[in-house]
Design goal:
Blueprint lengths: L7 H9 L4 E5 L3 H9 L4 E4 L3 H4 L11 H14 L4 E5 L9 H13 L5 E5 L5 H9 L4 E6 L5 H4 L9 H17 L3 E5 L3 H10 L4 E4 L7 E5 H5 L16 H17 L14 H13 L1
Parallel strand pairs: 1-2, 1-8, 2-3, 3-4, 4-5, 5-6, 6-7, 7-8
The structure holds 3-methyl-2-oxobutanoic acid (KIV).
The site of 3-methyl-2-oxobutanoic acid has 10 residues, from β6.
Length: 284
């Protein structure tokens, strides 16, 4: 069967046919290529990049230009996976015009297939402007790290009746505004499941239980590449960080003990070239 690109339409097909799809947050060409070749349906170039790769304390500082740089790299690696660009803090909050311009840059310059914005009801107008410009947009609710200051930290959302009601209203507003998918981060599984039932669009879970249409995880968490903290909802499928450290340590030890470079790692010249060179040096 001919392999086809995963698109927002494919996400709707999955929901209709009760098939799951997968998403990973990735930020560079080699990792995106591995993800695509492993069959991951969608690659989110998340602003988690700020923390997991660029060493920031939170996601606030990352800029449009930095995000674009990484979206371009991931897009170059992706033939079949849907590439979603995460709109960074202050790239869409100021006005709908700013949001459309920046979302447009992610498609036009970054070659992304869709964008994602954080926020609920208050972002509905912005989402509608992006949608009206012909750009596929995902609404991200629940734990929205860009506003973690207001949320009181990186905390699970929807744990009270009022906050669960707000999440449901947020999801419906975003859907009505034109979001083709709702991503829920850190929402209790049973609350997320109820909200999922009330929606028509495909849903994506980052730590919001098994009932949503897609599961998403941050690539660096899956690989064991980010060890400052590990979200409860994440699972380490590998310890690449430890493997990298092991390899670097072996290299370092071989340099210090003068084992590296081996003869296989060196370039040779014919003896005659060397002798002629040495005699030229002697005579000059
Ligand atoms: O930046 C990111 O990777 C995200 C996910 C955690 C949803 O926004």
């Amino acid at each position: 069967m001919k392999k086809e690109k995963f698109t927002p339409h494919s996400a709707f097909d999955c929901r209709r046919e009760k098939r799951k799809f997968s998403m990973i947050s990735v930020y560079d060409y080699p990792t995106a290529k591995c993800a695509e070749e492993a069959g991951i349906n969608s690659l989110l170039v998340g602003d988690s990049l700020a923390m997991t790769v660029l060493g920031h304390q939170d996601t606030i500082s990352i800029t449009m230009e930095e995000m674009l740089h990484h979206v371009k790299a991931v897009s170059r690696a992706s033939q079949y996976s849907m590439v979603v660009a995460d709109m960074p803090f202050m790239s869409y909050q100021i006005s709908s015009q700013q949001a459309v311009e920046n979302a447009g840059r992610f498609l036009k310059e970054g070659r992304a297939d869709a964008v994602k914005v954080e926020g609920g009801n208050q972002m509905a107008e912005t989402v509608n402007s992006i949608f009206s410009a012909g750009i596929s947009v995902i609404g991200h609710i629940g734990l929205t790290p860009q506003s973690s200051g207001q949320l009181g930290g990186l905390k699970v959302q929807g744990k009270t009746v009022d906050s669960a009601k707000k999440l449901l209203n947020d999801a419906i507003s975003l859907q009505e505004a034109g979001a083709f998918s709702i991503l829920m981060e850190c929402v209790p599984a049973k609350i997320a499941s109820v909200i999922n039932e009330k929606l028509d669009v495909p849903t994506i879970s980052y730590g919001s239980g098994p009932s949503l249409d897609a599961q998403g995880l941050v690539g660096a968490d899956i690989l064991g590449l980010f060890d400052l903290f590990q979200p409860k909802f994440s699972k380490r499928y590998s310890e690449i960080g430890l493997e990298i450290k092991k390899a670097f340590r072996r290299y370092h030890d071989e340099v210090i003990s003068q084992k590296f470079p081996y003869s296989d790692n060196q370039y040779n010249v014919p003896e005659i070239v060397l002798q002629n060179f040495l005699s030229w040096i002697k005579n000059n």
